[in-house]
Amino acid sequence: MTSPAAQDYLKAIYKLSRDRSAATTSGIAARLRVAAGSVTGMLKRLAEQGYVEHVPYYGARLTEEGEREALRTIRRHRVLEAFLVQQLGYTWDEVHEEAERLEHAASDELIDRMAKVLGEPREDPHGHPIPARGRAFIEEPLPTLADLEEGRSAVLRRVTHEDPEALRYLAGLGLVPGARLTLHERAPFGGPLRLTVEGEERLLGHELSRVLEVEPLDQVTAKGDENDG
Amino acid sequence: MTSPAAQDYLKAIYKLSRDRSAATTSGIAARLRVAAGSVTGMLKRLAEQGYVEHVPYYGARLTEEGEREALRTIRRHRVLEAFLVQQLGYTWDEVHEEAERLEHAASDELIDRMAKVLGEPREDPHGHPIPARGRAFIEEPLPTLADLEEGRSAVLRRVTHEDPEALRYLAGLGLVPGARLTLHERAPFGGPLRLTVEGEERLLGHELSRVLEVEPLDQVTAKGDENDG
DNA sequence: CGAGAGGATTTGGCAAGACTAAAAAAAGGA
DNA sequence: TCCTTTTTTTAGTCTTGCCAAATCCTCTCG
Predict the structure, then answer these.
(1) I need a labelling partner for A138 at 20 to 30 A (CA). Which of A64, A100, B6, B163 fits?
(2) Which bases of chain C are under 7 A from a protein CB atom?
(3) Do the Cβ atoms of A2 and A51 come closer than 8 Å?
(4) What's the pLDDT at A200?
(5) Does the pLDDT of residue A226 top 80, yes or no?
(6) What is the pTM of this model?
(7) What DSSP state is assigned to residue B61?
(8) Strand D CB-contacts below 7 Å
(9) What residue is closest to D19 (Cα–C1')?
């Protein structure tokens, strides 16, 4: 059985090792706002219990069982967020903290019932896919708005941020999952981006552009097209 | 801030001191299935934090703040039980354990939203009254079926039991809150009770009769009445 | 009144998790 | 390569809660 703290670590390792191959001690520490020494201690315990492979001074990766456990927690979190928004009138900026606590207390049975009431939702309110119960799952990464070429259009798919203030700000700009946007230009040296969101011209700092995952749309040339018509 | 464990202790003390004036160490230990020494330790901590007055070798009672805290937890628990049954299709025997975990993770905000969706319910699925947020509250005790005089009729109001098996058994006999019943006779020495529940004749062990709280109905004399007519 | 009996408390241990400070290892720069 | 910086780990401490065993109160009965 995994404790709430252990579940948080497994989630963090899962998320960190989607990019890199192994999660580093300092990465986990930063994500969980915990001292580095605490992380080493927990990794040792998780390794003993078979949830993690820990190579000292290198990093940690999840075992199969650890990944299963992480995905169970992520599923609980995301179903909870969806339920809070759709059934209880929460807004997308209010749900993270609540779900963060409930995910450790809710049974899988409860989560399944919630999912059923919601019609087996595929995504949480921030656009993140919800793993199905007990099934393998790969969250394929999307490019962020910071990666998008100038002049390209895209659909905003996921918002990778938890801060309520930031989320409210983004919603105020129309930047919610599903929004259609066009990037006009990006100022150099991490300067702001100029873009159109659902027809409105907007400015956005570079920092925030990195938390917006987008699905680029097929190039549509403005003046006449160059492939067969 | 009270920890989950502390909340469990406060709840236990609240429930134990509704009968007696102070909760005893062994009473709390039995209720929480914890060693007596653990209770003494926790009482000391709770007393330091001002939730409890502890007189060694005598017992503990809640301070005003402790009672407030206990009632908040009880409200959370009962709203959760009601929500699980009414919105998520749980049966009354399945909800206790789930609510027992969620009550420590759910915010008061969430509970209020759930209560609102349910139309501010007054009682949980077992008939226990739900304290209103932040308001004083007295759970006036009712007599149990074990106290009822032979020949009297009553309405079953509350079922004070958590065991799923027992609850299913009781439901099978029609013994759910709101059921109308008549006690015909009680066998001596803790023997079974013979009663009619919603028109069906039933037998019930003495043990279980003590967890059924009833509201006796006005005496209706079978053959002609003796007061003015 | 004195002696038990039975609860209650104290003591000593353990495990989880967190922190800080210091030691060790890895990485990077000149 | 060597020396400095950064990162990790180790070591020691704290708090919360739990247990078991030993001790201590209290109350009742003879």
Answers:
(1) A100
(2) 7-12, 16-22, 25-26
(3) yes
(4) 87
(5) no
(6) 0.89
(7) E
(8) A 24-27, 29, 36-37, 39-41, 43-44, 54, 56-59; B 3-6, 8, 32-38, 41-42, 45, 56-57
(9) B35
Alpha-carbon distance A117 to A90, whole Å? 16
Name which of A84, A90, A105 is nearest B102 (Cβ-Cβ).
A105
List the single residue in B98, B113, B114 with the smallest CB-CB distance to A110: B98
pLDDT tens digits, A53-62: 999 999 999 9
Model pLDDT, residue A221: 56
Judge whether B75 and B11 are in contact, CB under 8 Å. Answer: no
* Beta carbon pairs, A and B, within 8 Å: 41
Contact, B123 vs B177, CB < 8 A?
Answer: yes
**Which residue among B90, B105, B117 places its CB closest to the CB of A102?**
B105
Q: Could you give the CA distance from residue B35 to residue B66 in angstroms, rounded to a whole number?
A: 22
Spell out where chain A has E strands: 52-55, 59-62, 153-159, 180-186, 193-197, 200-204, 212-216
CA distances from B58 to B6, B25, B37, B48 (A): 20, 8, 15, 17
- Find the length of chain B: 229
Over residues B96-110, mean pLDDT? 97
Q: For strand D, which nucleotides have at least one atom less than 7 Å from a protein CB?
A: 7-12, 16-22, 25-26
Measured between alpha carbons, how far is A120 from A132 in angstroms, rounded to an integer?
Answer: 9
